[in-house]
Amino acid sequence: MKRIGSPNHRAHPECICVACSDDRTERRCKNPNACAAAVRTRLLQILPKWRPSAPDPPVAPPNPAVEGTTVFRPPPEISNLTDGFRIFTKDRGDDPPPPPGALPVSADESPVRAVIGGHIELSGTLDAKAAAGVWYAPNDPRNAGSLIPEGTAPKQGCGEIVAALLAAQAAPPNASLFIAGKRSTVTAAMNTHLQTWEDNRWIGVPNPAPLQALAACLRSRHGTTSFTVVQDAADRPACKAARTLAREAASEGVAATLNLTIPASAKIQGAKLSKMTQKNAYRMIRSLRETPPRRTTTTTVSLVQDVAKTRTGHAPTPKIIWESIRHKDISRQIKPWLWKSLHGAHRIGDYWSHIPGFEDRATCSHCNVTESLQHILLECTRPGQAQIWALAHKLWRRKTGEPLPTPSMGMVLGSALTTFEDESKQKLPSGLNRLYRIVVSESAFLIWKLRNECVITRNGAAPSIFEVHNRWVSLVNERLKIDQFMANHRSDQNKILVLPEVVLQTWSRTLLDEATLPKNWLREPRVLVGIGTLSSHPVSPPPRGRNRHS
């Protein structure tokens, strides 16, 4: 193939160059020129990464000898057949060309130094907004702040990513670019995690669009791009100025033009087959199939959002709601119950209406209305529901001197989201929020268990007021004992399970004869809540069997 570009070769069947002469003599080829042209045509039809004659990608320059500065090094090009196979791609397309690599900076291209900053407000709510700020120098016309557009989920660190993208897009492609920031978010993303993210099709990565656009933009630059984490006190005012630009953009709603488009030739599609795991393959298959939202789930999540917005003024995102049911203060057996409650997946009410022969199970046998979770927890007149909430009110009043907020479905399912503030909007000690989570979730789950025992194992016989009272007191005392145990023990990794001061804050002003207890009562064996049991009636043990919590 190389003979075609040689000055000694002629495009003629009788060419007398060395290569053609050898082919006639050794291989008895009648037309070496035609054979060489055919080979060249076949090779040019092969994609660059499989072509043996393709040039090697340029090597990035070494890191500069500047402490705290890291040069952007894109992941290396494919060097073997194994790494060349990718799956979960949308279309075949063409392979991206090799990165341009660093070229000498021309005399008229001076280095560019940009300081980036980010700002986020109301994180985790539907009203959350984030902004980016890029600062070059005092009174520099390039100084700008931009509100991150809708469609990019506001999350910690996204402001710095977008700010770096704005700086890279504005810098001349041949100039050296130095990006400085207070955090190492951009450095870690581009120099540490980029290879793994691209190998795994960005699965599980929040805000992938700005990161993908930033990686493509940095790859297309000829000048070197360096990242610096600001540590010098002299550079801190510049970081503060960048964050101020971002904060002003968020408050004023100023949005710059953010180009997230990636050229088709620069897109890296799919996931690398050689790095695939069963877990990631399953996640990618699920991500390719769009599951329509369930009507009941959407309604229930909206209910929780409405209650939270009424209390705080801002509705949490669905992601925050789903994460809240896994809160460490929620008992292990209650977490799946909350998950099914948010989905409306309990086998009650309308679930039985469509099963021939079981339609009567859809109706509450005590109230003669269609049964629902709201009816069971808040409306049913069967003994147990109202009494348990009255006990929760009593314990809460003992703790705070105020009544427990009126129970509702949104309050119960979003109990892990509730935070209490004083009149000046300052958050109260964490122990108060923790007690609320424990009391509300445990009380609601006990109502659910008592209903199931009544309907399934007792043939409709309701528990007595003595049993309901003592079951609730025993349940709360058990949680208190668990807290005492966790405050005095460590996990297998030698981590404190619950901080002792948190347990003391949680149960203060709720204990029996608290004035006689030592200041640190965590090792006292006979600590009980201040609501005693009723001894006028024996307590029957909870039913045994696999359906005791169903």
From TrEMBL:
Question: Molecular function (GO) terms listed?
Answer: nucleic acid binding
Cross-referenced InterPro entries: RNaseH_sf
Instruction: Show the ranges annotated as biased composition (Pro residues).
Output: 54-64
Q: What are the boundaries of the region Disordered?
A: 52-77
Q: Which domain of life is it from?
A: Eukaryota
Full protein name: Reverse transcriptase zinc-binding domain-containing protein
